[in-house]
Specification:
Elements (H helix, E strand, L loop, with lengths): L1 H20 L14 H22 L2 H15 L4
């Protein structure tokens, strides 16, 4: 009897908590996913991060470090 009561109590508590957070996934509401504006902001952020990463990887310092690393690896004696 104690297990079922605890399970129902936790389920009710979860529904209250999700309602306070504005989520309605397990408690009968709809979870419609991200809106178009959220996709747009996420896409712009991903593109900006990719551009910054590209600039860093193609910078002179990183390219010379990678070339040095590869040269040392190929010149290693076994």
């Amino acid at each position: 009897m104690g297990g079922k009561f605890m399970e129902r109590s936790l389920s009710a508590l979860r529904c209250v908590w999700e309602a306070r957070l504005g989520r309605h996934t397990r408690c009968g509401g709809l979870d419609r996913g991200m809106t178009t504006s959220e996709y747009a902001v996420g896409t712009i952020a991903a593109c900006a991060f990719a551009a910054v990463l590209y600039k860093v990887v193609t910078s002179g310092a990183v390219l010379s470090a990678l070339q040095s690393l590869i040269k040392d690896a190929l010149d290693a004696k076994f």
